[in-house]
Every structure is written in C-alpha cells, then in structure tokens.
Design a protein that fits this description.
The protein is mostly helical and 178 residues long. It has five helices and two strands; from the N terminus they run H-H-H-H-E-H-E. Helix content is 31%, strand content 7%. Its EC number is 2.6.1.2.
Length: 178
C-alpha cells in the first residue's frame, strides 16, 4: 500500500496548547484537581447560551433548515445578530454586514484564506487563540506577534500602538509562561 504523506503546509501549524501552563494544568489534574478548560471554545458547556430571540428563531425556522441557507447565513439568525448589535450601541450594522458560519473556526479559516496571499503577514494579538496562527500558516501567511499586554503600550481606543518587533515567526505559541 502506498504511503500518503501529509502536506508540507502543515509543517508550521501548531494548534494545541502546550508549554509551562499546560504542564502545570496536567500536573494539577493528576493530583485530582478539577481543571476548567476554557480553551476548547465550547461556551455552552459553561452556561453561555444563545440569546432567547435566537433560540426562538431557530425553533421557528427548524422546518425550513434541512437544506442550505443563504451564503451569508440564516436570515432570522442574522437579524437577531443585527438587533443585538443595535442593543449594544454598535451603530451602522445592517443585515448585509453580517456573515454567519458554523463557529469561529470556520469563519477565521474563510477570512484568512480570502484575505492572505502567500508570504503576507498577519499581526496576531499575543497570547493568541491558537487557531489564528495555525490558519495563517495554512493560508500561506506568517503570523507576527502583536503584544496586547498592558506594558506594551497598545491603546486600541485611540488606534495607537508602540513600535514592536513584528518579525514573522514559525509556529509562535505566545507567552504561555504566566
């Protein structure tokens, strides 16, 4: 039987959490302590449910949901997102601005594939959600570290950040030592 090798595009893709934090968490689990794993991305497991309006629209639209939805996502769900945005005081959000997917992972992958050309650099806030660096690499780009720690002087409210070393790096996992 012929061996099937993995793509070279995976050479610098690192998705798992590791390093001192992971080592310590594993040690604590081995000692019998309960560890709440917030890195999984399943917010429902921690009681963060969809707003009632979204849940009701899902129930009402279930009979029509067997096929594909609009490419931007289910209309009722997009409308609920628009209303929520308005309630939060976010101005100018219309239905045409809202794209839904099957979770953040799918949308992050679609966005990086659509926006990055081979060799492009994407500044990723560090420490990061590992998917950003993994998908940036798969999309042909390089992840540059953008420190969001208070000491860095980053002030997104005013669109300012101090000069930083945005040197492209391979498989950077952020500072997981703290």
């Amino acid at each position: 039987m012929k061996t099937i090798n993995k793509s070279s595009k995976l050479a610098h893709v690192l998705y798992d959490i590791r390093g001192p934090i992971m080592d310590r968490a594993k040690q604590m689990e081995d000692e019998g302590q309960k560890i709440i794993k917030l890195n999984i991305g399943n917010l429902a497991a921690f009681g963060f449910d969809a707003p009632e309006e979204v849940q009701l629209d899902m129930i009402r639209n279930l009979p029509n949901s067997a096929g594909y939805s609009d490419s931007k996502g289910n209309f009722a769900a997009r409308k609920a997102v628009m209303h929520y945005s308005q309630e939060q005081g976010i101005k100018g959000v219309t239905l045409e601005d809202i794209y839904l997917g099957n979770g953040a992972s799918e949308l992050i992958s679609m966005a990086t594939n659509a926006l990055l050309d081979d060799g492009d650099e994407l500044l990723v806030p560090m420490p990061d959600y590992p998917l950003w660096t993994a998908v940036t690499s798969l999309s042909g780009g390089h992840a540059g570290a953008l420190s969001v720690r208070r000491e860095s002087g980053l002030d997104p409210r005013h669109g300012r950040h101090p000069p930083q070393d945005h040197t492209p790096h391979e498989g950077y996992r952020g500072d997981q030592s703290q």
